[in-house]
Write a structure and sequence with these properties.
This protein is of the alpha+beta class and 151 residues long. It has seven helices and six strands. The strands form two sheets. It has a three-stranded antiparallel beta sheet with strand order 1-2-3, with no helix packed on it. It has a three-stranded antiparallel beta sheet with strand order 5-4-6, with no helix packed on it. Strand 4 and strand 5 (137-141) form a beta hairpin. The longest helix has 13 residues, at 15-27.
Length: 151
């Protein structure tokens, strides 16, 4: 938990390291999936779509992702193209996961150990969604994206 707190609060760390560190420590995401995340998977109301499942984000992580998107040169994607959330040095190409693992180690935030100790309760946390049926009221499901339910 100390490493997660550090990722979310230590402004001395590069933004990329903070985001990757938090995603690994909260959701046990491998670097190969993190480098493929796109801006359209992040939703301003604090959730991230992983595969087809919306996952709640802590407000501090949502703020980091907002900051990352604001720093992108062209956060709006041309029609039919997806913009990488954490683009690599070559435009349109993701970072090399092995290079990111080295960078994380340089900041004393190893990835493999963190993935193995991510809290199990957060691994499957999904945003419940309310779908309206005219005669039957509402139905809660966790795999479709529609209007998020309140707490």
């Amino acid at each position: 938990m100390a490493e997660l707190r550090r990722c979310l609060t230590d402004t001395g760390l590069p933004l990329l390291v903070r985001i990757i560190g938090a995603l690994v420590r909260l959701y046990a995401l491998p670097l190969t999936r993190i480098v493929e995340l796109t801006t359209d998977q992040f939703h301003r109301d604090a959730y991230l779509t992983l595969d087809r499942h919306p996952v709640l984000l802590p407000p501090a992580l949502a703020a980091l992702l907002d900051e990352q998107i604001a720093e992108l040169h062209d956060p709006l994607t041309p029609q039919g193209r997806r913009h990488l959330l954490l683009p690599g040095a070559v435009p349109g190409r993701p970072h090399n996961p092995a290079g990111l693992a080295d960078q994380m180690r340089q900041h004393d935030l190893p990835v493999r150990a963190a993935r193995n100790t991510a809290p199990r309760s957060t691994l499957r946390r999904r945003v419940p969604v309310r779908l309206q049926r005219p005669a039957e009221g509402s139905l809660l499901i966790g795999t479709n994206v529609a209007e998020p339910c309140g707490p």
